[in-house]
Amino acid sequence: MNDRDREAVGPAFDPSHMLHARSRSWAALHGIRERMRPGISEDEARAEAADVFAALGMERLWHPVLIRIGPNTTKTYRERSIPGVRLGENDIYFIDLGLVFDGHEGDVGETFTIGHAPEQAACAQAARDLYRDVAAKWRNEGLSGHNLYNYADERAEAMGWRFNHATKGHRVSDFPHSVHKGGDLGDFEHEPGEGLWILEIQIAHPTRPFGAFYEDLLTDAAS
Fold first, then answer.
1. What does the pLDDT read at residue 3?
2. 17-62 pLDDT per residue, tens
3. Where would I find the Peptidase M24 domain in this sequence (predicted)?
4. Distance CA 65, CA 99 (A)
5. For the domain 3-217, what is the CATH superfamily, name and number?
6. Strand partners, 203
7. CA-to-CA distance for 35 and 16, rounded, in angstroms?
8. What separation in angstroms does the CA of 167 have from each of 26, 171, 183, 216?
9. Where are the domains of the chain?
10. DSSP alpha helix (H) spans, the chain
């Protein structure tokens, strides 16, 4: 597959609709955040998310809603959560959403803490900072997807966090992007095009059982 195929889009693709899907997806994520409270389980949070999606006019999911709490924040997308985990009084969690609006795919994720959890809060902030650092490298230097993830790994280590190499970013587009088989951003050997790729960052504490996740669309548009 050549690079043009890996960045192919469908006939309905519209960059403005991609930005709309991104904006609505972030609104959904923060709507779920407002419902997170001590004692809630991941299953209960996912069930309540349906009301948030309906209020925003979401058309469908393109990947399952992922909400990870406590030790499950170290799990990759394809790993199952430890069952029965509930949000503690001083705890960490992340939300990962893949939603379709106007036939276009949004994909956003962010990590939050509740109560007094300073180390967890530092981890959550580090994931945000690392995402912004790597995205700036893309905007300012035009690095390939492969080199962006090499840079992310180096920066995470320098910041004192363990980088999750299994989380490597991916394509989005008009739904369904999967027909284009774009592959992982971390394996893309050229500069990623704007508004087509999700940069995913996942890190973990080097010794303690918690981590953080952040993802967003690579775009020059204001966040």
1. 63
2. 999 999 999 999 999 999 999 999 999 999 999 999 999 999 999 9
3. 18-216
4. 9
5. Creatinase/methionine aminopeptidase superfamily (3.90.230.10)
6. 163, 212
7. 29
8. 20, 13, 12, 13
9. 3-217
10. 3-6, 15-33, 42-56, 118-141, 145-159
